[in-house]
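Rotation project, supervised by the postdoc (A.L.). Task for the rotation student: set up a whole-complex structure prediction and record inputs and outputs verbatim in this book. Inputs entered:
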Amino acid sequence: MRLALAAAAAALVLAGCGQSGGGAQRSVCPPGKLCFHAANQNDPETLDPAKGSLVIEDNIISDMFVGLVTDDAAGQPIPGAAESWTTSPDGLTWTFKLRPHVWSDGVPVTADDVVFSLRRLADPKTAAQYAYFIYPIKNAQEINGGKAAPETLGVEALDDRTVRITLLHPVPYLPELLKHQSTYVLPAHVIRKWGDAWVNPGHIVSNGPYTLASWRLGDKIRLVKNPRFYDAANVCLDEVYYYPIADINSAERQVLRGELDMSNSLRSSRVEYLRKVAPDYVHTHTYLGVGYLAVNTNIPALKDKRVRLALDMALDREFYAEKLFRAGELPAYGFTPPGVANYPGGVKAYFAGWPLERRQAEARRLLAEAGYGPKNPLKLEILYSPGGSQTTIVPAIQADWRQIGVQASLAQAEGQILFSSLNARNFQVGVAGWIADYNDANTFLYLLKSTTGPQNYGDYKNPIYDALLDKADNEPDLQKRAAYLMQAEKIMVDDAANLPFYFWISRNLVNPNVSGWIDNIVDHHRKRWLCFKDADARRSAPRS
Amino acid sequence: MTAFGPELAPGSRAGAAAMTSAARKGRSLWDDALRRLLRNRAAVGSMAVLAVLVLAAVVGPFLTPFTYDQLNKQDVWVAPLTHGHLLGTDSLGRDLLARLLIGLRVSLAVGVVATCVSLVIGVAWGASAGYLGGRIDEVMMRVVDVLYSLPFIFFVILLMVTFGRNFILMFVAIGAVEWLTMARIVRGQTLSLRHKEFVEAARAAGVSSGRIVLRHIVPNLLGPVVVYVTLTIPGVILAESFLSFLGLGVQEPLTSLGTLISTGAQDMELAPWLLIFPSIVMVVTLMCFNFIGDGLRDAIDPKDR
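Outputs recorded:
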């Protein structure tokens, strides 16, 4: 999943340069209700679960919809729209039993809705970025490629409350896939009626804890509790407000002043200070995210493995993690973050233990071997997006590369433009980041497979790597599977297919009065689990 | 251009000596203006301070022990006066003094270059419109009116997005917006000058329009133009800072006063020096320009006092 790199510049202008107001005026809560106010860096591009791809969209969508599987308070998969499921011994057939529950308009959620949603995701007409997500399902890849009809998808409704999913190869992490926003259960009757306009306020119905009440662009999104949600009795907060606040410093101040209850982003360099002045507010946790430099292997110079390795070695990752970010981030010598499920991890590039001087010397040697030197310096352009947490690092990378004689110039591009440039291979080196879509190493390693398409930014192609991933896909034994994946990762890392530089941590600023908050590795905090410590007092003594 | 200036009587003290010399030296309006300017303490003080700042911006970066883009990895975020960093270092361990000097250089360069762009376009446009008059004047000034109604920041952002981030482009963009007021001032002055006797005389003598504008109109406009220029430079520096504050300014590792203040503001509780020193330099620079502009206006146009 891509991090929403807010275009700080443009958004600041749009927000009226508001340091104090910031365009987000805390709403008046109806008397006797519990309202939760959250900062969200930007307005979502869409609220259609199948089409979204940003974290800021997932935050909102996942409060409105539940998939067959859903998140518990700690981000672990628990039964959602399905109350139970069984797996065939070969791991290829999964049967889900739906929970009897209804959409927010009273229409029952049926197995047909599930079939409809997944077919819609695979259908090339939907143009869903995450269509590849269900490629393990029979025929999904063919359907998405236009070679088969959506009806041939390996998802069938056996009766009104039973769904059978047929896979191409065992996917032990299927429940993780089915709690991702792209696979959520959608209301077939509403989408058939309204088409793409089904997500508009007034049309949209959902099966989750909240429904969309209003969306004022640039101002706020208001969700109200869905009384028909199957677990509505245990949902504490009555209303949830999301404010698009691009300026994270402004969001931080609003949380500290008590105007907002949480902000899901926080500049790393602020963490140290905030831990001192507001220790109860700061929440950091290991996170399945990695910051890396995508290297375009279509550029002749970067096609050369020696050049990529030299660039890789010259990065002073310890400095980045300890001095620049200093919130607990870890230097990355591999691509898969520590803590991923079903994966012992710990794969590191062969030069990981070397001191910086030795790495620099070796990098210079490799560059010279590749034909670059003081007389013929390698010139590169680093593409990055301003405003993001990763921005601070770019001048440091530039300086580190200067040490080995590489002249890097910097090019800034606003978030959306950056992503389209990466997708179009219109870059040399790009600052990118990847957040796990599901808790499995595959979500990272998949990126560098030659068949992945746009998200393999650097167009890395290595048949051995691809073969190992395929082998892992078809391996039901989790330990053997992990061994294949680690073998693949080692090959990719030693090839410098891309240049990972640090593993992220999640950084949230949460009012200490909020209860039910559990820091977790996927950084999912669905609002249905949250409440206020003084909830009773708030209910009886309403305040604005 | 002293042709039309009233010849002033020689000063009494110098009288005798002047009388005896063959060529009696007159005092022009410009001499007068200079005298009045030099009597203005704030203006003179500002000029001295500004001279120091310009000198620092030009030669300073060569003299600092650290370069502006050099990372001192052991000295991240150190306070002023530690380990040889007079003004401390930033989050990457870069010396603030070196960055401040380079930032000042960039800001001053932006100010001067953009103002020159606005000067050239504005004077040419305004003088042509004013002198030619009639329908041409109408059309030219309506163009100015239309451009005036474009919000400045959106115009610059649009330029940046279309042509990409470019240092030179930013000079031009700001200059291309700032010339509008200049054109109006110049046109107004030209209108009042074009019917003056010396212009009539030149026309009667058969001098071409272009030459009249260049030789007779423009030199007589210089007073208000010079005043306006000194007031435009700080305006442009501010505009650049504003753009930098929004992240549309110069590219790393280069910096400008606005960029320094913007990044300094993000961590002001942790490293206040990153905000304080650039702000002081910025305020002093702007104040100098404003005092000089004020002094010049008083000197050149004594009626306005």
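Student's summary: The first helix of chain A runs from residue 8 to 14.
Supervisor addendum: Chain A has 18 helices and 19 strands.
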